[in-house]
Amino acid sequence: SENTYLCQIYNLTLLCMEDYIVEPQSVQFLVQHGFDFNKQYSQGIPYHKGNDKGNENQSQSVRTFFLELIRAKKPLILHNGLIDLVFLYQCFYAHLPDSLGTFTADLSEMFPAGIYDTKYASEFETRFVASYLEYAYKKCKRENCKLKDSIGQHLTIEFCNYPANMSCYIDYRHCSLQEESHDVGGGNKVPVCEKFSAYGWCPKGVKCPQSHNIDLIIDEDDKFWEKRKKRKHKWKRRKNTEEPTKVSEQESSGKEMELAQNGEEGPPRKQSCYEPAAATEPAEITPDTEGRPLKENSMDMEPEVSSDTKKEKETHGPPSQGGTHRAGFDAFMTGYIMAYVWMLKKGKNTDTGAGPWLPDCHNKLYLSGKSVPLQIVKSLFSKSSKAHSQKMKLAWAS
C-alpha cells in the first residue's frame, strides 16, 4: 500500500587515515554503547578528508559510494543534520567552502530532491514537546499504533528476509511498543531524569540514578499536557460564565504569554525542566540518544546489515541505559519519523505533483536555540565552489 515501506539498514565502520583529535567523553559514550574500537582500527573502511586524490571515481571507496548517492537524486533525510552535512561534505566530497552561502549553494545542487531534517519536522510540524531522536521516534510510533487500532491510515514497515549465510553480518533488536522495564503502575518506579527528559542527554550518563526510560518520559508528558488542557478548558468555561468582558483581555494576555514563551512558530516547550532549552541543549554533535533498543510493534525483530565479519556481543548498562547506540538504528528512527510526518501531511491527497516532496520541511535544517531554520538554497549572490563544480562534472561524466 502507499504507506508501506521496505526498509534496509546499513551500518558501515569507517576509519579516517589522517591524524585527528578525539574527545574522551565521546569515546567513553561510544564504548558504553558497544562500539568496538579494535574492529574500527583493524577493519574500518579507510577514507581521507578534502578533495579527491587522483581518479577516485574508478575505485571502490566511500567517496565513490557517496557520489552514487548524489547520482541517485533522492531526498536526503537527517536528524539535526547541520553537523552531519559538514562531515559528509568534508570527509567524502571536497574541502569545505569558505562561506556558508557557498556551502548551501553546493548542497542544493548535490541533493536537488531536497534535504529534510526530522528534528525540524518534530518541532515545527508535529509540535512534539521534545524533539531528540528517540523521543520523536517513539512518539510517532505510539501515534501510529493508535491510528492502526482505529483502522485509520497508518504506517507499515517491512524488512527483508536475509539468507542464513548472511547471519554473521546482521544484528537484530527485539521490538515491542514499550520497553519490558516500562511499568506504568509500578509503585517503586525510579523518578525520571529531568535533563534527559527534556534534551535526550544527561551529563551523568550511565551513572545517573534516575530513569532515562523514553516510554515513561512520554507517559508523563502526555499526562501533564492532558491535565493542562483540562485546566485551561475549565478556566475558559468558568470565565465565560462569570466575567465575559474580562475574559477576552485575560485570554489575550495568556496567549501573548504563551507565544512569548514558545515562539510564534515554535513547538510547545517542556514545562518541567528547570533550565531553558536554548541555553543548555547540546548541539547534538555527539549522538543525541542513549541507545536503548528500538521499539517496533509491526514486526518481531529489526535487522541491521553491518560491515562486521562476526556478530558482536552486545554490552548492556543499567536499566536506564540498556541497549546499544548504533548509527544504523538511528538512521532507521530518522526514516520512520519522516515517513510518519509525510503520511500526516499529505493526508488523503495522493496527487503530489511535480513540486517538493514535503514543502513545509523542504531544505530546512534545524538550528539549535533558533526559531528559524537554515535554508539550503542557492542565493543569487553566492556561487558554487570550484571543487564542487569539478565533482559534479565527475558525477555526470558517464
Automatic annotation (TrEMBL):
Gene3D superfamilies: 6.10.250.3220, Ribonuclease H-like superfamily/Ribonuclease H. One of its GO terms (molecular function) is snRNA binding. PROSITE patterns: ZF_C3H1. Pfam families: CAF1, zf-CCCH. GO terms for biological process: snRNA 3'-end processing. The keyword Zinc-finger applies. It comes from the Eukaryota. Residues 240-258, 289-298, 307-316 have a biased composition (Basic and acidic residues). Residues 275-288 have a biased composition (Low complexity). Residues 229-327 are annotated as: Disordered. Residues 229-239 have a biased composition (Basic residues). Keywords: Metal-binding, Zinc, Zinc-finger. InterPro entries: CAF1_poly(A)_ribonucleases, RNase_CAF1, RNaseH-like_sf, RNaseH_sf, Znf_CCCH. GO terms for cellular component: Cajal body. Residues 187-215 form the C3H1-type domain. A zinc finger (C3H1-type) spans 187-215. Belongs to the CAF1 family. This is TOE1 protein. The gene is Toe1.
